[in-house]
Structure formats: C-alpha cells, structure tokens
Design goal:
heterodimer; A: about 400 residues; alpha/beta; 11-stranded mixed β-sheet; 21 strands; about 20% helix; B: about 250 residues; 6-stranded mixed β-sheet; 4-stranded antiparallel β-sheet; globular
Amino acid sequence: MKLSELKGKSAKELTGVLGFPDKANQAEKFAKLDLPNKKTEEYHYFDVEKLFDKEYKLLEYPHKPIAEGEKLVITDGVVTSAPKGLRISYANDTKIDLAHFDAMYYLGHLLCSHTIKIELDGDVQLEVEHHYTQSNALIHYRIELTNQVNRHSTVYETFIADDIQDTLVLYGYDLNIAQDSTLRMVKLQTMYDNKYSIIASHKMNVGKNAQAIFKSFDFGGDHGLQLLKVDLDERAHIEANHLLYVNQHSRRGTVSQIVHKGEYSTSKQEAKNILDGNTRGIFDALIRVEKTAKHTKAEQNSKAILLHEKAYMAAKPQLEIYIDELEASHGSTTGQLDAKQIFYLQSRGLSYNEARKMLVIAFANTLIEKVMDARYQERIKEAFEAVFYSTNTN
Amino acid sequence: MSTKNSIMKIENLQAKIGDKEILKGINLELEPGKVHAIMGPNGAGKSTLSKALVGHYDVEVTGGDILYKGESIKDMEPEERALNGIFLSFQHPVEIPGVNNSYFLRTALNAKLKHEGKDELNAAEFLRLMKSHLESLGMKSDMISRSLNEGFSGGEKKRNEILQMLILEPEVIILDEIDSGLDIDALRAVSEGINKMKDGKRTFLVITHYSRILDYIKPDYIHVLKDGRIIKTAGPELVAELEEHGYDDIEEEK
C-alpha cells in the first residue's frame, strides 16, 4: 500500500478503500484535512511525502494470547506480553477528538480496527516497550490509556527495532488523565537511519486539577515526528519537556498544540535541541488560551544548539490568546556552543573536543536530570551518550 | 627588576582585540616564588594581558613573545598552558548549567595528573581532597554538587576559583581582579586560600585596580601598567605612592 494513494479521497471513498464503514467521523475529518504534504504547516519541515510515496506491506493485527512479563510489550502493533494484573483489552469505541489539528491522528484511527485499551488501576509504574520486527511494512496501532481519579502513575516508553529497514510506524495515544490525578509519561527513543520512520500522533485530555508530565527523549537518526494535542481543564497542568539530539540525516521533532480550556490551567513546555550532521530539528508548538480559560499561566521555550554547518532548526513557538487575564511567555534561541564556556573549560586543562562534549552533555542533562526515577535517568543518560559518542569519536 | 631565572618572561608583547591595539610592547619577568602585582587605571590593558598569557580567543598577539620556563607559549593552546601549570582566576567566571562542579574539577585534575604521568584519582579520593579545601575556604559542601558557578554569588564564584587553584596546584597563578565584588569576609577567605599556596615556589601575578587586596596578599614587586606598557616597577612601597597620587603622576622609567 502507498499512503499517497489516499490523497484527495472523499470520506466515502476512504471508508470503502480501508474497509471500515463504521468510521464515518474519522473519514470525514481525514478527508477534510487530507493527507499531509510539504505545504501542510505541521509537516512543512518533515519531508513527509517521501514516506508516503513508498510501497509498504500491510500487517495483520490478531488478538494473540498475552504472555505475563515485567513490561507491556507491543510487537508490530500487537500486545505480546504484559505485567500481571494490568487491565488491557481491545476496544473499538474509543472516543476521538473531533478537533485535532493532525490528519494523521484521524488516519491512525481509520486504519485500526481496534485500539489497545489500557486502564491503570491505583498508583502504578508501567513500562511499555514498542518492538518492530518487519521491514518495508506499515505498522499502525493506537493506544487508549486511562488512569483513576486521585491516583499517580508513571509510564515509561521505549522502542526497539530488529534488523529492519524502510518501515513506517503510525501510532499514538488517546490519554485521559482523570480528575485530581497525575500521569507521568517518559519516552525514550533512539533511532538509526533507514530502519524505520515514525509519526506519533497523540491526544491528551487533562482533567480538573490533574497533572500531566510528558517528557520525550528523542535521539539519533531517521525521520520521526511526534504530534501532540493537549486539552487542559480547570486547574489542570501540563509540563512538557522535549530533548532532541539528532545526527546523520535526521528529520525529527515535536509539533504540539496545548489548549487551555479551563480557568487557572497552567502549562510549561521546554524544548532543548542539539543538531549534529545534516539534520533538521522541529519544534512547532502552539499554546492556545480560550475565552473560558481565565487566569491561565503558560510558558514555552525552545533552545537549540547547532553542532554542524548544515544543521537547521525550525523553531516556531506560538501563542494564540483570546483573553486578557493571563500570564504567558514564549521564546526561542538557536546558536552554537558558548565560546566563553568552552574557553573556561580549556583554561582548566580540557581539550577543545572534551570541553565541547562536556557542554553538550551538560545541555542535555538539564532536562535528563528532571526525570524523577534515578534508574531511568541513568538509562536516558546512557542512551544519549551512546548516540552522541557514536558521532563524536575524537 | 631583572632576573636570570624568571619562570615567565614577557618580551615586547603586543596584542589587539578586534582592531584595537591594546598591549603596546610589554616587558615583564616573573621571578619564581614571588608575588608580582600589576596595577593600573581602567583601560590600561590589565585584563588583556591576563588573557594573552592564557591564550584567550579574544586576544590576537601581534608581536613579541611569552616565554614560560624558557619556551615560547605564544602559539600554545589554552589547555596546554593550563596542563603545564599556568592558571588564571577569572574576573567574571562563567556559569555552566548542567556541568557538575565536582565532576568538572575531577576531570580537570585527572587531565593534569595524566599529563604529568601520575595516577588519576577515583571519586572517593577526590572527594576527600576536595572536602579538606572546602572547609578552609568556608564553602558550603553543597556547592560541589551544584552546576559550575550557576547561581553562585560573586563571592562564591571567586571562592570556587580559588578552590580550583588549590586542587590543580599550578605554578604560575594569575589573579585577575580577584577582589572585585567581594565583601570583607569573602576577601579574607579568598586571601587565606591564596596565601596557603605561597610556598616560595609558586609565582603569583595579581592584577588589580585597587590596593585593598595587597593588604592581604603581600606583593614583592609592583608593576604599573598604563596605556599598554609597563611604565614603572618597584617594591611594595609603591602602593602607598599610588594611593596618594594616583596613576597620573607616575612617570615612565627610561
């Protein structure tokens, strides 16, 4: 299948081609937004057409027996193991957002006959491992995740790919964070050129007085875009941190919309981007404050360090505000390593290259060290340094 | 002053920053184990001289030479100068968020030990060494676990510079306006740290606009720098004269 064949199709044609006649809403939304191309604002810097012009094989998504394991493992879109007691099922009644900005959110729902539904009971810590084994495949799946009122959970996400090539993964979460609860999502993804590309399109509803903490650590090569829409209810809060370190010929980043709907809702979004090689980093982030969201506080910041003359950072922090009673700030800087800092380290006996490495790692650590779990923090540091030192061997 | 065995000899040093010629032929010899103070008005070239000695990228040396232990270091990389024993305490130390103070200093010390062919220190050995110096400088122990100079007060930054000096044990120590921004307690602690290093072998070059620091670190020689040149060298008695008459009345020695 070539995804480019879906371009310009009507809702009726789409449901016919994809074989899910009961998904009229998704089809209509997708038909209206249409398959993204380089003129689509959210995908402008991503070279998406290259991915959609490839021929992919389609996979089956059978409901296999789920083995018991320490973590939830999703292999090629199918749950293969899960911790004992985790409530997990397949659903075809997932409530979708009818105002998502991303066409691929709707396509993801259109392509999936069911979603993987995870219900977190109590205060839990769950590790989700996404495992990809198929070359030249289109792997698509969606996850619906809910937690309970006044509970505090953490989800760690990791990604593993076998020796595969030229696969495209379309996946995403529909997250419903219950009133007075906290959900931490920590994502660690190291990718390598030509193995697989990924478009992850998420939706997050943050309930009254609830807190969402979303931290993404994206390292390495290839093409990867995470698209995130967040709706904040009254006194809801989101803290979103994104650390991007890309090398080789990578095109990766974050496109997000944080929508303040409830009064006294707060958001803090911080992106740190380190671009090595002929790479492109993307941080296209909108904070929208609706009329109903008086006394909102919103903060957004992006910093990028370019380590290569051909590296390019597309940073677009944006505020869209419809009220006066709020505090909001946003900013973006792109530059090179600070010459004064390099010299200071050299003046204490470190070589130029050692000083440069120390500063890059320090820049990354300012976000890595915000991860609460020390063991996971260490894993992220190791993953970062493994990718960084593979590019900077001197 | 002329010494046969100077540890550092600056010969007719000329340097510019951007298009501006700042050092216009500096001649200066540093005697081993002595404290040399360079005094001069604002804009005389004091900080440019200190930067030139450690190879700062701002400064382009356009003429003359800098000999350290008889070898030219004019074209040497900053880290090579540091590894060979030249240390600059910065007037305005930079803040480096994310670089742990203790980790940085152990990396720097181990780079020096490796350069000298000695065994590197492990974390526990280094911590013991660091703790002994922290107490003597009146530094809080949490400063070693914080990011390098980040959020430090002016006094804490200067104490941290002295901590680095005590641990790295350099041979030539350049103190650029070490007293600026220090209250009396911090000045005393910093001075005590410096005086601990005065063992008759290490050489100090104290660069200052005011004489206050010289009440605490007794100089052996005073050099007056004006308009990019050393115009007078004398003993410590020159400080009183400068205090009374300022720099305008100092005449260049022929």
